[in-house]
């Protein structure tokens, strides 16, 4: 039985190998299995597709302007910790006899410090001073937008988040004209 090797694509043809019989007289069948190239392995991959958002792109492929800064929260500042904290302490920081307050845009704009941080979301006013350290995006972005109606900005980045549930204990009143 003769052995012939089928040439692979882009492989120069070689002289066919001669089959040699083992010492005991039996015949041996030899065959070659082509090695997978990395390019071939990529085309055979079915899931996830090569251009799928599930494929992690190298950092250099992401434009610097669209990258968000990573924020490391302090220990015991997770979403579950916030749930516990907001029920154990007074996070409204207003006189309960005034609740709910009616706040104008001018009054809202006076509350812009980290210790007195109010925002409007969906026509409601929230004192988020106690929430700042629990925000996964960091304190800076919240303080930067303090004293403003942040509904449009919030919906741009967090449209799926239920802010009324997260900030329920921070609710202090309504925005009025």
Automatic annotation (TrEMBL):
Region ranges (Disordered): 1-57
SMART domains assigned: Cyt-b5 (SM01117)
Record's GO cellular component terms: cytoplasm
Protein name: Cytochrome b5 heme-binding domain-containing protein
Keywords noted in UniProt: Heme, Iron, Metal-binding
Gene Ontology MF: a single term: cytochrome-b5 reductase activity, acting on NAD(P)H
Recorded family membership: Belongs to the cytochrome b5 family.
PANTHER family in alphabetical order: CYTOCHROME B5 REDUCTASE 4, CYTOCHROME B5 REDUCTASE 4 FAMILY MEMBER
Residue ranges of every copy of the Cytochrome b5 heme-binding domain listed in the record: 100-176
InterPro entries found in the cross-reference section: Cyt_B5-like_heme/steroid-bd, Cyt_B5-like_heme/steroid_sf, Cyt_B5_heme-BS, Cytochrome_b5/Flavoprotein_Rdt
């Amino acid at each position: 039985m003769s052995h012939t090797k089928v040439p692979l694509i882009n492989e120069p043809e070689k002289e066919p190998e001669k089959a040699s019989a083992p010492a005991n007289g039996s015949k041996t069948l030899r065959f070659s299995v082509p090695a997978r190239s990395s390019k071939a392995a990529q085309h055979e991959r079915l899931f996830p597709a090569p251009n799928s958002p599930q494929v992690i792109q190298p950092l250099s492929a992401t434009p610097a302007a669209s990258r968000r800064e990573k924020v490391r929260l302090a220990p015991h500042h997770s979403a579950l910790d916030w749930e516990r904290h907001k029920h154990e302490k007074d996070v409204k920081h207003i006189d309960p006899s005034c609740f709910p307050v009616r706040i104008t845009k001018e009054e809202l704009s006076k509350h812009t410090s980290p210790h007195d941080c109010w925002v409007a979301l969906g026509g409601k006013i929230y004192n988020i001073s106690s929430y700042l350290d629990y925000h996964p995006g960091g304190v800076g972005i919240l303080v930067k937008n303090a004293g403003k109606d942040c509904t449009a900005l919030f919906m741009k980045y967090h449209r799926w988040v239920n802010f009324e549930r997260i900030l329920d204990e921070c609710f202090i009143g309504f925005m009025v004209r």
